[in-house]
Amino acid sequence: MKKHILLTGKPGVGKTSVIKKIIPLLGTSAGGFFTEEIRVMDRRMGFRIVTLDGKEGIMAHVDCNSNYKVGKYRVDLDSFERVAIPALEKAMKDKSIIVIDEIGKMELFSAKFRELVRNILDGKKPLLCVIKENGDTFTEEIKNRGDVSLVTVNYENREGLPEKVLDMLKVMKKFAAITVLRNTDAY
User: Mind listing the pLDDT tens digit for each residue in 27-80?
Assistant: First the structure.
């Protein structure tokens, strides 16, 4: 049985939009974060991280003073870790579904984030995440795990994906509940 759902696809195809449409459907059972563009007069200047419980921080910005760079954006690793790490730790402890948007170049500068992602994947709770299409060793290992469903987002399927992914999560949660019941019946 697959335990985690990974959304992948070309940049700009709408992966984050799919995640953002699913989040309200999950209600209070989900924890984690998503990202949003920071725009000034129609120009993308960076990205902010927003937790599912409403905390925000700067993830990357053209004016950030940082040694970590992706394209024209400099990654604010301190801000990212200050917001993302506690949100994910809280989700692991208190929520039934963990949401990460995304496991990508900017986020992977954080060793703490990589370690937490490994712990989430090895844990019992389902992960719904966006993962970059063009992999590196870390993301390819994740995509090749036997317990993940890799869903490619494209222009043709993105509108129907929120409902499809929600159905997949419902099946996973039912399976997890049945597994827990079976394990407790054994005693």
Answer: 888 999 999 999 999 999 999 999 999 999 999 999 999 999 999 999 999 999
Q: Would you say how long the chain is, in residues?
A: 187
Token code pair at residue 129: 């995440």
Looking up tokens 């994947």 gives: 121
Q: How far apart are CA 169 and CA 98, in angstroms?
A: 11
Paired with 149 in beta bridges are 5
Residue-wise pLDDT for 85-139, tens only, equals 999 999 999 999 999 999 999 999 999 999 999 999 999 999 999 999 987 899 9
Contact of 44 with 60, CB cutoff 8 Å: no
Cα dihedral across residues 82, 83, 88, 93: positive or negative:
positive
Separate counts of helices (H) and strands (E) for the chain = 5, 9
State the Cα–Cα distance between residues 97 and 79, nearest whole angstrom: 24
3-class DSSP state of 34: strand
